[in-house]
C-alpha cells in the first residue's frame, strides 16, 4: 500500500498494487485533462512529479517525444507507479 498525493488540492489516495498516475487521479477525483481517454495521443494529461520520482516507471517512448515537457513532467496515462509520489496538477 502506498500514497499518491495531488497538489495543490492536497487530495491523497491509498493505492494497493501497480497503477497509472491517470487511474490514481481518477480514483482521487482529480482531473488530469485526459482528453484522449488515456491512449497517449492528446498529451494533455501532464503532471509534475514533486516527490517520489524513483517510484514511477522510466519515461515511455510517447513521453520522450513530447518536446515541451520539463524533466519532472510526466504523461499521467503513460506512467505506472509502485510507491509514494507527490504530484502537481495544473
Ligand atoms: S490522456 Fe491523452 S495523452 Fe494521456
Secondary structure elements and pairings:
Layout (H helix, E strand, L loop, with lengths): L1 E6 L3 E5 L3 E2 H8 L17 E6 L9 H4 L8 E3 L4 E2 L3 E4 L2
Parallel strand pairs: 1-7
Antiparallel strand pairs: 1-2, 3-6, 4-5, 4-7
What does this structure look like?
Helices cover about 15% and strands about 30% of the residues. It has a single domain, classed as Beta-grasp domain (Ubiquitin-like (UB roll)), CATH 3.10.20. It contains two helices and seven strands. By secondary structure, it is an alpha+beta fold. About 25% of the residues are buried. It starts with a strand and ends with a strand. FE2/S2 (inorganic) cluster binds near residues 34 and 41. The site of FE2/S2 (inorganic) cluster (FES) has 12 residues, from loops.
**Which ranges are low-confidence, i.e. pLDDT below 50, for 5 or more consecutive residues?**
none
Instruction: Note the beta-strand portion.
Output: 25-35%
Ligands present: FE2/S2 (inorganic) cluster
SSE series: EEEHEHEEE
Give a short account of the largest sheet: 5 strands, mixed
Radius of gyration: 12 Å
General form: globular
Q: What do we call the CATH homologous superfamily?
A: Beta-grasp domain
Which sequence of strands runs across the widest sheet?
2-1-7-4-5
The CATH architecture comes to Roll
User: For the residues shown, what is the average pLDDT?
Assistant: 95
Topology-level CATH name: Ubiquitin-like (UB roll)
| DSSP, total strands | 7
How many domains? The number is 1
Terminal Cα span: 26 Å
* Protein structure class: alpha+beta
- The helicity comes to 10-25%
Helix count, DSSP H or I runs of 4 or more residues: 2
Amino acid at each position: 500500500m502506498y500514497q499518491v498525493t495531488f497538489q495543490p488540492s492536497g487530495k491523497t489516495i491509498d493505492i494497493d498494487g501497480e497503477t497509472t498516475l491517470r487511474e490514481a487521479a481518477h480514483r482521487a477525483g482529480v482531473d488530469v485533462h485526459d482528453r484522449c481517454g488515456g491512449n497517449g495521443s492528446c498529451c494533455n494529461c501532464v503532471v509534475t512529479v514533486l516527490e517520489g520520482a524513483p517510484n514511477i516507471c522510466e519515461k515511455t517512448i510517447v513521453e520522450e517525444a513530447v518536446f515541451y515537457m520539463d524533466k519532472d513532467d510526466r504523461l499521467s496515462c503513460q506512467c505506472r507507479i509502485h510507491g509514494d509520489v507527490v504530484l502537481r496538477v495544473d
